[in-house]
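BUG: 3D viewer hangs when loading the predicted structure for this chain

Environment: internal workstation, default settings.
Expected: structure renders.
Actual: progress bar stalls at 90%.

Input used:
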Amino acid sequence: MAALQFYDAVISGNLRSVIEVAARHKFDLNDFFRDFRERDHQGKCPLHVAALKGYRDMVRYLIDSGCDVNKQTATLRRTPLHFAVNGRRMDCFRALIAANAELNLVDTFGYPALHYAAEHGLTDMLDILISKGAEIDIQDITMKTALMKAVRSLKTQSVKKLLKAACKVNVQNQHGDTALHFASRMGACEMIRLLIESGAEPNVENNWGQTPLMEAVNYNRSEAVKRLVDLGCDVNTRNQSKGEIALHAAMRKNHTAIVRILLEAGSRADILNHQGVSPAFEIAAHNYVDTLKVLIKLNYDLDTPGRTSGPAGPLQVTETLYQIASRAGHLEICGLLAQYNCDSFWIRDGNVAHEQYTSVTKPMSWLNVSGPLQSCCRKSIRKVLGRNIFTSVKELPLPKSIQDFVCAGELCLD
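Structure tokens produced before the viewer hung:
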């Protein structure tokens, strides 16, 4: 009964009752509660609860009475300092710091107090911890740092504080992620800038072969993709695991806006991965009409192979975008390819099987493709102009209407 009375006095913040009951029953103020009403308080002592609830006077009394400021809870191994930070109790936090609380003790998850301060955006506490010499690059049990947690929680001010304190920006967690991976995944453009300007490696791969740029693509973060490109990420970096570039993922996921950003930044849609598949294969295979229109507008070579298989040489099999789309029955894709006069829908291989020939030519008969002269002329001009078509066409002595035709002005992009 007395133990529960003592517990109630601590929980309610009644310092006078705490002193009286402890003296009457000779309770050790540093012991874990003998009795409690909330299961969560099992394995905690009065200083843990007082720090969490912000009972400043009780914290000071317990410290003055000789309580261990570094005592860890029985289960999660948290100290009073952890509780003061998580409870956002600045007065209690300062009292514990003044009592020389150990700054770098970690809980069961490997978090020191500084991790919680950074993750919650508690910049005043973060300033004090850094100024008192807290280690800023401690990694938790999953090898995450305070910087990663601040980025993941979108706490920009915490990120700035840690960068100013010269934290390590290229540390990797157990999955190979850096802070820049987290920023890219979250679409945090300002953090991306801060990290790269502080020396973050823009093209590092995680354990799955994903660069920060690829992560931004995977999560459809178009603004983050643009920021990464503007800050110097290599759009044609191939990952080691699959041999893919960011454009493979953008086209696979049909992120049309990102496809355009990458192509305008010089990404090559003809790069084959380790399976011999180009980024454009996804367009033809999955009927991504709007993304194909982007390729046409940006003057992508529609005759580039979509997929190759087999060893290099005469035995290698090459499939064009038209063949891939026609085999899948994507007639609108076939129509666009034919309209913009890609050569590769014409059958030149005498060894093509009858079934393959039929699958390729059937859409052609449906489209009644005849290869009009104006389309042939447009294609010839576009090939000469290349990827800088919008700039180069203005230098030609052509009427505006013909310039628009050359640039496929009739294609409307959302």
